[in-house]
Automatic annotation (TrEMBL):
SMART domains: Gln-synt_C (SM01230). It catalyses: L-glutamate + NH4(+) + ATP = L-glutamine + ADP + phosphate + H(+). Belongs to the glutamine synthetase family. Its EC number is 6.3.1.2. It is an enzyme of class 6 (ligase). Keywords: ATP-binding, Ligase, Nucleotide-binding. SUPFAM superfamilies: Glutamine synthetase, N-terminal domain, Glutamine synthetase/guanido kinase. Residues 113-384 form the GS catalytic domain. This is Glutamine synthetase. It holds the Pfam family Gln-synt_N.
Length: 384
């Protein structure tokens, strides 16, 4: 197996140091999205006491020229703490802190999509939008070949691997279960996991989360996944189509509902939202991966449980449609629907913001609107 050199270091020796007392000091690891819009970075500092809330964590800075976020002549970027989690690697009382990134002039960085997402979610807070996202990923060796696949060949055809059990059907379950437990410890709202259709491909689900919480929890779950994989010496890729040919791609199916949809008779609201989404298909495709739809074009082919990228479709229990209404929802007449178009490497802030803009703020076309800042009592009523 092609695993990293670091994973072969003596972990028993490391544990000796990790067990040393740290007094009243606390390690706080700041986590942020880099200039690619896909990668995460981190750095750690010492605080003199355990932070009890996010306001207790000070702002910090980093060299944006080394993360593709600034020029070397003006490289300092600000890290603004926005959500705090327990640290499953260094353990209590140490913390992981998700941060927004601001430029030298205090304006949000280009890949800081949380900034606008938070404003949009605040506008519709009275609708209580809930999300659940299904993050698919593929485990690779350091050589870039899927973990567990024959070095110079391919495994058997797809069929026995989805939710599979057995050493000849699933690869890397130790990593998956370690990630699951680490997320639970951290306080990430992870709610499930399963092996996927392609061997070495897995999925975990995060949610239900309301509003901005969805992006925060999924990004931290991704960070924890990459850190766990680092310990095991393998790589988790979110590439939407890591293997060409007759193999499934990787998506980030997004389940969505509002308070009205969750009430009895909510199916009418679900159908109305789907109709709005259908009229804005091109806009959503552009938002649903970091490259304006180029990544998804390799995945959304109309095959391998995907819809065609050029066509919008919806149906009950149809995994080949753009939008799937679960069969139980169709029977109950209320609940949620699943947007199956987002790519595995999507930004959850962009995806959730786009869905809200279209279904609740009634935006049309490919352009987005700017909204006047509103007081809490005015939210839900738009101003031109």
């Amino acid at each position: 197996m092609s695993v990293s050199h670091s994973s072969k270091l003596n972990k028993v020796v490391r544990d000796q140091y990790m067990k040393l007392p740290q007094g009243d000091k606390v390690l706080v690891t700041y986590v942020w999205i880099d200039g690619s819009g896909e990668g995460v970075r981190c750095k750690t500092r010492t605080l003199n006491q355990e932070p009890k809330c996010i306001e207790d964590v000070p702002e910090w800075n980093f060299d944006g020229s080394s993360t593709d976020q600034a020029e070397g002549s003006n490289s300092d970027m600000f890290l603004i703490p926005v959500r705090m989690f327990r640290d499953p690697f260094c353990l209590d009382p140490n913390k992981l802190v998700l941060c927004e990134v601001l430029k030298y002039n205090r304006k949000h960085a280009e890949t800081n999509l949380r900034n606008t997402c938070k404003k949009i979610m605040d506008l519709v807070e009275n609708s209580h939008p809930w999300f659940g996202m299904e993050q698919e990923y593929t485990l690779l060796g350091i050589n870039g070949h899927p973990y567990g696949w024959p070095e110079n060949g391919f495994p058997g055809p797809q069929g026995p691997y989805y939710c599979g059990v057995g050493a000849d059907k699933v690869y890397g379950r130790d990593i998956v279960e370690s990630h699951y437990k680490a997320c639970l410890y951290a306080g990430v709202k992870i709610c499930g996991t399963n092996a996927e259709v392609m061997p070495s491909q897995w999925e975990f689900q995060v949610g239900p989360c309301e509003g901005i919480e969805m992006g925060d929890h999924l990004w931290m779950a991704r960070f924890i996944l990459h850190r766990v994989c680092e310990d095991f010496g393998v790589v988790a890729t979110l590439d939407p189509k890591p293997m060409t040919g007759n193999w499934n791609g990787a998506g980030c199916h997004t389940n969505y509902s509002t308070e009205e949809m969750r009430r009895e008779g909510g199916l009418k609201s679900i159908e109305a939202a789907i109709e709005k989404l259908g009229k804005r298909h091109d806009y959503h495709i552009c938002v649903y991966d970091p490259r304006g739809g180029q990544d998804n074009s390799r995945r959304l082919t109309g095959h391998h449980e995907t819809s065609n990228i050029f066509e919008f479709s919806a149906g009950v229990a149809n995994r080949g449609a753009s939008i799937r209404i679960p069969r139980q929802v169709g029977q109950d007449g209320f609940g949620y629907f699943e947007d199956r178009r987002p790519a595995a490497n999507c930004d959850p802030y962009a995806v959730t913001e786009a869905i809200v803009r279209t279904t609740l703020l009634n935006e049309t076309g490919v352009e987005t609107k700017d909204y006047v800042e509103q007081s809490k009592s005015e939210r839900g009523v738009l101003k031109d």
